[in-house]
Design a protein that fits this description.
Elements lengths: L2 H32 L34 H12 L5 H6 L4 E3 L7 H11 L7 E3 L7 H13 L5 E3 L7 H10 L8 E3 L7 H12 L6 E3 L7 H13 L5 E3 L8 H9 L8 E3 L10 H10 L5 E3 L7 H12 L6 E3 L10 H11 L10 H4 L3
Parallel strand pairs: 1-2, 2-3, 3-4, 4-5, 5-6, 6-7, 7-8, 8-9
Pfam family, one: LRR_6
InterPro entries: Leu-rich_rpt, LRR-containing, LRR_dom_sf
Protein name: Leucine-rich repeat-containing protein 74B
């Protein structure tokens, strides 16, 4: 074979590969952009309504053979006019990708999402501390609906806007692989809680959800209480450092009567008072799965702890009960009731701190 002919063949092969990659990038961008339409509606609109059905699509194209995820990413960055994140480019294909503190904007996140849409090897994605834009949040939602490899997604400290939360919440019922979702420190409020609660309720793959350090109030507690009543796959829920009180704490406490999966619940630093403790005590008697309950750093008094103690007597699963830093003063009647319950062998699994055992 002549040198000229050999060079011609190599040139043709390179041209075909470049054309294939460009085709993949163009089709991916077209579909990512197709999902950007989002009509404005009142905050009370449920995402279950057909109004939201146009935001996400199922027909992402299959990945063309011979085009790597890194090639797709670099070409997409070039097409969008954004600078590639070198760390992401180097970690594509690895089990875990961490790209924190990169201040990813809309186009930057679009490029990353395009590379991960059909990725089958990365199971953990950490993009915390990036101040994601509205468009970035929506890209995450589309990624969740399409990708079938991600099992852990960390979106903490991103100040995700409502449009992004809508997209993420919409995707959850369609995703059967995600196991852990972290949305801590995003400034989320009651309208966001309503959307996320619906998504969590209809998802049966999530095991761990972190929603701490947000702005959830009583209404949010009611929403999450409804979700826990009907969801029977979630194992851990962290709602610490919020403002879930009164009706909210009652709803969550009552949901534990019907939930048959939750093992760990953190409600510390919420301003809880005695309002929901009677419900909590009754629920603990009936619940057969809860192992760890953290209600520390709240405003629960002796009276409230006495209510909770009633439930401890009937619980055979509870291992850890954290009630530290509450308003337990005076005669410590609540503590006494808890320890009396233990002596009656009502909670054989509960681990009692050594310094409290001598008080029984």
């Amino acid at each position: 074979m002549s040198r000229q002919h050999s060079q011609s063949l190599r040139s043709s092969a390179c041209s075909n590969a470049t054309g294939t990659c460009k085709k993949q990038v163009d089709s991916t961008l077209t579909l990512l952009k197709h999902g950007r339409r989002l009509d404005k509606e009142d905050d009370t609109k449920s995402f279950a309504s057909s109004h939201w059905d146009t935001d996400l699509e199922d027909d992402f194209p299959g990945k063309d053979k011979g085009v790597s995820d890194k090639e797709t990413y670099l070409k997409t960055c070039d097409a969008l006019g954004v600078t590639p994140v070198s760390r992401f480019g180097n970690e594509i294909g690895q089990e875990e990708i961490k790209i924190n503190h990169r201040f990813l904007k809309g186009m930057g996140m679009t490029a990353i999402a395009s590379a991960l849409l059909r990725n089958k090897t990365t199971s953990k994605l950490n993009i915390a501390h990036n101040e994601l834009s509205i468009e970035s949040g929506k890209c995450i939602g589309r990624l969740l609906k399409s990708n079938r490899a991600l099992t852990e997604l960390n979106l903490a400290n991103n100040n995700i806007r409502k449009e992004g939360i809508i997209a993420i919440a919409q995707a959850l019922p369609h995703n059967d692989t995600i196991r852990k979702l972290d949305l801590a420190r995003n400034g989320l409020g009651d309208s966001d809680a309503r959307l996320l609660a619906e998504g969590i309720e209809k998802n049966d793959s999530l095991f761990i959800v972190n929603l701490s350090y947000n702005n959830f109030s009583e209404a949010s507690g009611v929403s999450f209480g409804d979700a826990l009543t009907y969801n029977n796959s979630l194992l851990e829920l962290d709602l610490s450092w919020n403002f879930i009180r009164r009706a909210g704490e009652e709803a969550i406490a009552k949901s534990l009567r019907y939930n048959s999966s939750l093992e760990k619940l953190n409600l510390s630093w919420n301003g809880l008072d005695d309002c929901g403790t009677k419900e909590l005590g009754e629920s603990l008697k009936r619940n057969s799965t809860i192992k760890e309950l953290d209600i520390s750093n709240n405003r629960i008094s002796d009276k409230g702890l006495i209510n909770i103690a009633v439930g401890i007597e009937g619980s055979d699963k509870l291992e850890v009960l954290n009630v530290s830093h509450n308003l337990i003063f005076g005669s410590f009647e609540g503590v006494k009731k808890v320890l009396e319950g233990l002596h009656k062998n009502g909670a054989p699994a509960l681990r009692v701190p050594r310094h409290l055992r001598h008080k029984a």
